[in-house]
Amino acid sequence: MAQDFTRAYAETRDASDSLAPYRGEFYLPQDGIYMDGNSLGLLSKRAERTLLESLSDWKELGIDGWMSGRHPWFNLSEQLAALNAPLVGARAEEVMVTGSTTVNLHQLVASFFKPEGKRTKILADTLTFPSDIYALKSQLELRGLDPSEHLVQVSSPDGRYLKEEDIIAAMTDEIALIVLPTVLYRSGQILDMARLAKAAHERDILIGFDACHSVGAIPHAFHDWGVDFAYWCNYKHLNGGPGSVGGLFVHERHFGTTPGLAGWFGSRKDKQFDMDHTMTPADDAGAFQIGTPHVLSLAPQLGALEMFNEVGMDAIREKSLALTTYMTALIDEVLAPYGFVIGSPRNETQRGAHLSLEHPEAARICKALKQHRVIPDFRAPNIIRLAPVALYNTFTDVYDVVMTLQTIMENKEYEAFENVREVVA
Ligand SMILES: *Cc1c(COP(=O)(O)O)cnc(C)c1O
């Protein structure tokens, strides 16, 4: 881009942004700038409406809300799965909105990890989200396998990025299952899922992905890439609300696999209320549900997901990249002299939807940002994550955040705070 570092330039970009009208759909913090949509997406008016409608159904209908509410609860998970499917490149039957990220990982590993003979190990990486590693270790322990031997974690040469070659080299004949992130939660690196899935299958290994940082942020083609399974949360880029119900994908070639953790909501819907003690699992991804859906944590997704389907992931990705590329240029120009390092891929094809800004004083710089009513997030020990979100952030937001950081550094405002993280960072 022609290097123009004026605020007027940012305003010009906003004026020609076709997604600009969506900003008005969200409740934005008053006189502040929200840059944390990768941790908790904001409430939209549509999500609020569908939540309140479900609440009224409960108020007015009691138990009948299951079948005759405005959004009948009995089929709500399936309805939301159909809205999630285009975002992950899946058939509607391959997706289910259920559980939470970590619970879905437990379910999928319980269902698809089948140690046999020499193949008894799970392959993951050293940069992934801790909850995933806790879940994998406990799944191994439940099978009587020692995690220190049976969990293999590919390491990163620089602490930021993973190399697909290293991951492929670790796909030995002792590996039964691979679990990797789609987008790394710190650096925002996108892994080449198609390449990894192909390499895994050539070696008879199953592969699943944690899509928390990619769903709603980048397009996917889980079905065509042949990914075996995936799971994600709907409260980050998808704006489903705090603790909103998660999502899972199971490739249709695995339909009929017995769920590792069975429960009555995994039944075929027409059989569920037979109350038979022999379960008849659904013949699609619905089989991996466990118990009664958390209706009030599903309901906001109806409104929230509508917007993603209206706009389409390609348009969201295009604006998201425009925002992060613009932010990268501004940071290079304005913040590099203060010792900031961009710890995210500069190459657009490898970059997710946030930028990771590294600085030794990151914890207290974040506190100073909050005092200026800019909401970032902090990841120990030295990362400020900034997520300009396509549906509700502007180029002017990006400009103002970078200039606020410059003010904080220039005046050493961060020195007024302690350089330690808060409880929820
Ligand atoms: C946010 C996040 C989780 C959170 O899991 P929950 O079960 O929803 O708490 C897991 N994995 C990754 C990569 C995440 O970013």
TrEMBL record:
Its cofactor is pyridoxal 5'-phosphate. Keywords: Hydrolase, Pyridine nucleotide biosynthesis, Pyridoxal phosphate. Its EC number is 3.7.1.3. One of its GO terms (biological process) is NAD+ biosynthetic process. The modification N6-(pyridoxal phosphate)lysine is found at K236. The keyword Hydrolase applies. GO terms for molecular function: kynureninase activity; pyridoxal phosphate binding. Pfam families: KYNU_C. Pathway: Cofactor biosynthesis; NAD(+) biosynthesis; quinolinate from L-kynurenine: step 2/3; Amino-acid degradation; L-kynurenine degradation; L-alanine and anthranilate from L-kynurenine: step 1/1. InterPro entries: Kynureninase (IPR010111), PyrdxlP-dep_Trfase (IPR015424), PyrdxlP-dep_Trfase_major (IPR015421), PyrdxlP-dep_Trfase_small (IPR015422). It catalyses: 3-hydroxy-L-kynurenine + H2O = 3-hydroxyanthranilate + L-alanine + H(+); L-kynurenine + H2O = anthranilate + L-alanine + H(+). It comes from the Bacteria. Pyridoxal 5'-phosphate binds at T101, T102, F129, P130, S131, D132, D210, H213, Y235, W264, T292. The keyword Ribosomal protein does not apply. Homodimer. Belongs to the kynureninase family. NCBIfam families: kynureninase. Catalyzes the cleavage of L-kynurenine (L-Kyn) and L-3-hydroxykynurenine (L-3OHKyn) into anthranilic acid (AA) and 3-hydroxyanthranilic acid (3-OHAA), respectively. PANTHER family: KYNURENINASE (PTHR14084). This is Kynureninase. The lineage of its organism: Bacteria, Bacillati, Bacillota, Bacilli, Bacillales.
